[in-house]
């Protein structure tokens, strides 16, 4: 699975989302919980706006000097016994990791949740090489069983209900108990423990790498990332190249913003920083450690007006407030990165051709921009994307182009505008009944598919104002 | 150890940023705000202790409070209550707090008492996996989030606080600091130190393991411990 | 004080009442209101759809229309918010940039202008009924006007203001979004309509006609009889 998910066109994906009642209820209630949790924990912290400012400044400084900090990070990891591989493409990253797995003759790989490995399609690449991959995050394990892509970047199986999960466990793993989440989770614990203990290689993502120390930090609640980094003899961490901070002190600020924004917790149950391979005399931890730093299209964003999109810390705060996401769910975006950040990032990483609808999948309500803990101007990026689609990519519909040309003529000429004062009402007359249009023509159709439109007024405001003035003067 | 493809990769980044590659003298700027220094600035140690307790309970940890004198018996009672086997981190604090003796005595009462011993290699993991209880000290304790911090090393293996069903963290009162900010200062000092090495793993642990991946319902105890008990040892 | 009314094309052509109330409110507050006739549309429909060049033509016309105004006041958070975006769009056209900055600096949404420039928090109106307020997204998040409309509403005699659940959620209007992504927009406005019904208020009030036409259109389609009014109508209402 690479960044693109599913093969349905956009309209079909939206319809499937809107028609999925369970998913929509689940998303809606999850958003409610996420939002109140975030609000509570950020209020408790106090000075939330200052924290956002600091977060933004740290991210901005880091990205401006990303070559310096990646250099420092790689030196540190090497110093601590690790191997560092810089991968420009998904293929390079996958081939390198395949190489490790083959060299170790690994039968089983355990993985903790990682969006970047979804993005590069690592699991498929390793399966091709004949290795068993076990996703160990509960949500990801469920999805892997059903060969279903994630629909949310923090809670990937948000779209599934417990009955569906029970059935999958039963059909695929011989589960015999009920659909109680406690029982389902206990079963997962018991099954996955065996995998952790028998795995040859552990693979993690990376929430933040610390340049000054080489520490790769993983943020989880389940503890699976700790198991992945403690038990197998070989460990690989895969990081998007922008997921780093200069120092331990910067790490703390961003981890706090992440856990509060993502799950409304002051900290998650486990925040684990791993530095290179285990030290001499240590038992737990990997003997061999690899850090794979992935570009896969990110470098093209550097130095452009979209650079701040690389500040993203993958907290999903924008997703959790997005009304569009609430109604269509994650799969409708057709990308492993859904929601507002997905609509901004996906066309940048994977081109406009397959994702040209995404920047328009927003009412520009700016709830995302307001929620972002590192102040990415998400809705402004969406507008900029639209400009590029129209003016550079020339991918907007022909009828729209004609309409917008007409709009420009109308709005730039007071005389043309004045004509429309009467024209608007007259031309809509055939569709008007009792001052209401229920089935509008042309561009009005989309509107009147779901709601009424009022007939234009008999007398415009400017006419009223003029008459009033005349009355006063005479 | 190897670093591969670094130069071409980083040169490309510098080129996209429209400037020569930076390999030295990058300074972190003075950020315009520093809320992390304001937080809990005036809190007394007594207040921090209360915040720690409150937050820990909120995060589903069980909190006990004791004196140095009573620590060994309390730990013993908790171990016995929670099961029939224990794995505990090694190190000098066991002697300092009178735990070594207690563990020795406990051996005759329950199925297995194991002090983590790196000389035994992977056997430690096997023991941790079957142990009912794991016990470690907290190195730095964060009040704001109810978090214990472990600098994992050869005596305090990662698996002790991870594989057993119940995890007991001993929290000397003196280790309690306001928040992560202070623990990071400790790590930065280690980073800059000539003599000390930063640990290979720093574990921030807040309560037992949990998940909300099924219908957003919080379940306690997924991959890590099902139960977390923090034992605060008041300064004498 | 001389104030130039920025009517917005929507209110000019579809809901002229809003302009009438705005004029009367401003006059009552002691303003001398004029109406620059060469104004058209602020350009937002084109701008938000990605047609920057087309939008700029409308924007230039708007800049010209209000060149001589002291204050520009409009009954829409969204359209006034658009005026504030002008400078960014003209960053590379020096002469227009300067003018755009001037326009942005002197433009106000009407409730913001009443409260924060004229220091009016009570318009002396009486309006009998239960009302619920929808704070439109651009008014609150782009323009940053959150308190002014609420403050004014609280001081309307006879009106009982009921909190709208999930008030800050978008109604699904989004300009061309409502047409281009009508399925999603439809789901959003259905949700908003549901929240309005939950309040059992007789009136839904807001500061942006785009959003209000959207919600009203949906509620009519659902056969609901909640009356939808622009905030200026309530603030300008007299007993009887």
Report on this structure.
Chain C: It comes from Salimicrobium halophilum. Chain C: GO terms for molecular function: oxidoreductase activity. Chain A is α/β, with parallel strands linked by helices and 474 residues long. Helix content of chain A is 52%, strand content 12%. In chain A, the strands form three sheets. Chain A has a six-stranded parallel beta sheet, with helices on both faces. Chain A has a four-stranded mixed beta sheet with strand order 8-5-6-9, sandwiched between helices. In chain A, strands 11-12-13 form a three-stranded antiparallel beta sheet. In chain A, helix 2 packs across helix 12 (248-263) and helix 18 packs across helix 19 (414-428). Chain A is elongated. The termini of chain A are far apart. The relative contact order of chain A is 0.12. The model of chain A has no long low-confidence stretch (mean pLDDT 95). In chain B, 45% of the residues are buried. Chain B contains eight helices and 13 strands. In chain B, helix 4 packs parallel to helix 6 (99-106). Chain B has one domain (43-234): Rossmann fold (3-Layer(aba) Sandwich). Helices cover 52% and strands 15% of the residues of chain C. Chain C has helices at 9-13, 16-28, 44-48, 52-65, 77-89, 94-106, 110-117, 137-142, 147-154, 177-180, 182-199, 209-221, 231-235, and strands at residues 2-5, 32-34, 71-74, 107-109, 126-134, 157-162, 203-206, 227-230. In chain C, helix 5 runs antiparallel to helix 6. By secondary structure, chain C is of the alpha/beta class. The chains are: A alpha/beta (474), B alpha/beta (236), C alpha/beta (240). Chains A and B meet through helix 2, helix 3, helix 4, strand 1 and helix 8 of A and strand 1, helix 1, helix 2, helix 7 and helix 8 of B.
């Amino acid at each position: 699975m690479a960044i693109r998910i599913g093969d349905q066109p956009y309209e079909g994906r939206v319809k499937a989302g809107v028609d999925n009642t369970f998913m929509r209820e689940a998303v809606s209630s999850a958003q409610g919980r996420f939002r109140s949790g975030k609000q509570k924990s950020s209020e408790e912290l106090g000075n939330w706006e200052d924290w956002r400012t600091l977060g933004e400044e740290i991210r901005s400084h880091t990205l401006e000097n990303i070559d310096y900090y990646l250099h420092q990070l790689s030196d540190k990891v090497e110093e601590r016994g690790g191997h560092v591989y810089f991968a420009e493409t998904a293929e390079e990253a996958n081939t390198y990791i395949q190489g490790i797995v083959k060299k170790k003759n690994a039968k089983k790989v355990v993985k903790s949740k990682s969006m970047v490995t979804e993005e590069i399609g690592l699991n498929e690449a390793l399966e091709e090489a004949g290795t068993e991959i076990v996703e160990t995050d509960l949500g990801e394990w469920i999805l892997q069983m059903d060969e279903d892509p994630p629909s949310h970047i923090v809670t990937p199986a948000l779209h599934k209900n417990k009955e569906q999960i029970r059935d999958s466990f039963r059909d695929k793993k011989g589960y015999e108990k009920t659909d109680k989440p406690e029982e389902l989770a206990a079963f997962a614990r018991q099954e996955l423990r065996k995998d952790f203990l028998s795995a040859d290689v552990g693979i993690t993502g990376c929430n933040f790498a610390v340049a000054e120390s080489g520490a790769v930090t993983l943020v989880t609640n389940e503890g699976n990332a700790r198991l992945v980094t403690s038990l197998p003899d070989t460990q690989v961490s895969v990081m998007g190249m922008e997921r780093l901070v200069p120092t331990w002190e910067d790490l703390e600020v961003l981890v706090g913003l992440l856990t509060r924004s993502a799950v409304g917790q002051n900290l998650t149950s486990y925040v684990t920083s791993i530095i290179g391979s285990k030290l001499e005399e240590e038992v737990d931890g990997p003997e061999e450690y690899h850090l794979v730093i992935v570009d896969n299209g990110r470098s093209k964003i550097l130095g452009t007006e979209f650079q701040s999109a690389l500040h993203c810390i993958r907290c999903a705060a924008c997703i959790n407030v997005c009304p569009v996401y609430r109604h269509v769910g994650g799969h409708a975006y057709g990308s492993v990165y859904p929601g507002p950040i997905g609509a901004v990032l996906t066309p940048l990483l994977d081109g406009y051709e397959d994702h040209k609808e995404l920047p328009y999948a927003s009412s520009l309500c700016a709830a995302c921009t307001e929620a972002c803990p590192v102040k990415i101007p998400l809705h402004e990026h969406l507008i900029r994307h639209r400009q590029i689609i129209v003016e550079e990519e020339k991918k907007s519909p022909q009828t729209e182009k004609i309409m917008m040309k007409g709009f420009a003529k109308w709005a730039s000429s007071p005389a043309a505008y004045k004509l429309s004062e009467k024209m608007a009402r007259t031309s809509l007359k055939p569709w008007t009944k009792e001052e209401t249009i229920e089935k509008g023509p042309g561009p009005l159709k989309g509107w009147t598919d779901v709601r009424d439109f009022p007939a234009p007024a008999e007398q415009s405001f400017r006419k009223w104002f003029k008459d009033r003035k005349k009355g006063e003067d005479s | 150890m190897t670093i591969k493809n670094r130069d071409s990769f980083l040169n490309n980044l510098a080129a996209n940023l429209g400037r020569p590659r930076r390999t030295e003298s990058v300074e972190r700027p003075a950020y315009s705000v520093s809320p992390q220094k304001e937080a809990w600035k005036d809190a007394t140690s007594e207040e921090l202790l209360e915040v720690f307790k409150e937050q820990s309970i909120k995060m589903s940890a069980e909190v006990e409070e004791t004196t140095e004198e009573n620590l060994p018996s309390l730990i013993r009672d908790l171990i016995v209550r929670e099961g029939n086997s224990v794995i505990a981190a090694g190190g000098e604090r066991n002697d300092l707090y009178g735990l070594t003796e207690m563990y020795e005595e406990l051996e005759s009462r329950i199925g297995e008492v194991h002090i983590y011993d790196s000389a035994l290699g992977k056997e430690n993991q096997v023991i941790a996996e079957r142990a009912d209880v794991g016990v470690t000290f907290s190195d730095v304790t964060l009040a704001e989030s109810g978090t214990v911090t472990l600098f994992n090393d050869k005596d305090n293996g990662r698996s002790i606080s991870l594989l057993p069903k119940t995890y007991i963290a001993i929290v000397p009162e003196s280790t309690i600091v306001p928040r992560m900010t202070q623990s990071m200062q400790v790590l930065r000092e280690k980073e800059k130190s000539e003599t000390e090495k930063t640990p290979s793993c720093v574990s921030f642990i807040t309560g037992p393991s949990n998940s909300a991946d099924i219908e957003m319902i919080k379940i306690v105890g997924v991959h890590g411990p099902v139960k977390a008990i923090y034992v605060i040892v008041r300064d004498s | 004080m001389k104030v130039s009314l920025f009517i917005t094309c929507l209110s000019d052509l579809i809901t002229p009442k809003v302009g009438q109330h705005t004029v009367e409110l401003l006059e009552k507050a002691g303003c001398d209101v004029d109406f620059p006739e060469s104004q058209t549309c602020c350009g937002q429909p084109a701008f938000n759809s990605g047609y920057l060049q087309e939008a700029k033509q409308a924007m230039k016309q708007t800049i010209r229309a209000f060149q001589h105004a002291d204050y520009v006041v409009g009954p829409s958070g969204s359209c006034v918010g658009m005026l504030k975006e002008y400078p960014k769009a003209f960053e590379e056209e020096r002469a227009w940039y300067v003018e755009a900055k001037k326009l942005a600096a002197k433009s106000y949404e009407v409730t913001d202008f009443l409260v924060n420039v004229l220091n009016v928090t009570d318009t002396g109106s009486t309006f009998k009924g239960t009302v619920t307020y929808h704070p439109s997204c651009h008014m609150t998040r782009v323009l940053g006007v959150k308190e002014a409309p609420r403050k004014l509403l609280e001081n309307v005699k006879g009106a009982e203001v009921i909190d709208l659940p999930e008030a800050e959620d978008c109604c699904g209007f989004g300009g061309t979004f409502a047409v281009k992504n009508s399925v999603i927009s439809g789901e959003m406005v259905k949700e908003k309509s549901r929240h309005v019904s939950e309040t059992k208020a007789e009136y839904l009030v807001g500061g942006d006609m785009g959003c209000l036409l959207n919600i009203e259109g949906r509620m009519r389609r659902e056969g609901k009889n909640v009356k939808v009014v622009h905030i200026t109508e309530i603030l300008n209402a007299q007993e009887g």
